[in-house]
Design brief:
With 143 residues, the chain is mostly helical. The protein has 4 helices and 2 strands; from the N terminus they run ααββαα. It is 46% helix and 4% strand. Bound molecules: heme C.
């Protein structure tokens, strides 16, 4: 039976490990970069594709189990007519549901609790920029 020399095994492992570390670093950088800071406004010609993607994410990420698109109240407020309107938080403050507010509500739902609802929503901290834009454009489109 052939037993490889230890230095040969090491030599063949090293490039693979470096490659994995580099890939991991890229993935991690991608996550933190995409989930922090203000969300850039998409180009107008990109909006229809984002709305379509957001519509799919609404189902695949199970937002639809708590947020309807027809105005009916589930565990969470309906997305129908949500964008740009005002709502009241548990502490009585009125907020306008603009893009920064919606982004914060998705990344950190507990930061501003809507009055009349329970803290049931999990934070979606690691959404990349495109998926976040897609969800926002989708919410805007549900009139
Ligand atoms: C398990 C139920 C649940 C799921 C799943 C869920 N949410 Fe929520 N969401 C809530 C509840 C309850 C609230 C209201 C309480 C609060 O402010 O956290 C809320 C609040 C929000 C708000 C602020 C609404 C307002 O009226 O100001 C947005 C925006 C939102 N969710 C988006 C999403 C998106 C996008 C997803 C999927 C990626 C999602 N939610 C998944 C339960 C859920």
């Amino acid at each position: 039976m052939f037993t490889p020399m230890p230095h040969l095994v090491l030599a063949s492992l090293r490039p693979a490990r470096t490659g994995l570390a580099a890939t991991l670093a890229l993935v991690l950088a991608g996550c933190s970069g995409g989930s922090a800071g203000p969300l850039p406004t998409p180009a107008p010609q990109d909006v229809p594709a984002l709305v379509e993607l957001g519509k799919q994410l609404h189902v695949s990420m199970t937002c639809n189990t708590c947020h309807s698109v027809d105005g009916s109240k589930l565990n969470g407020p309906s997305f129908k007519g949500m964008y740009g309107t005002k709502t009241t938080l548990v502490d009585g403050t009125e907020v306008t549901r603009d893009v920064p507010y919606l982004v914060e509500s998705i990344r950190d739902p507990a930061a501003k609790m809507v009055k009349g609802y329970k803290p049931l929503m999990n934070p979606y901290k690691n959404l990349d920029e495109r998926n976040m834009q897609a969800l926002i454009e989708f919410i805007k489109s549900v009139k």
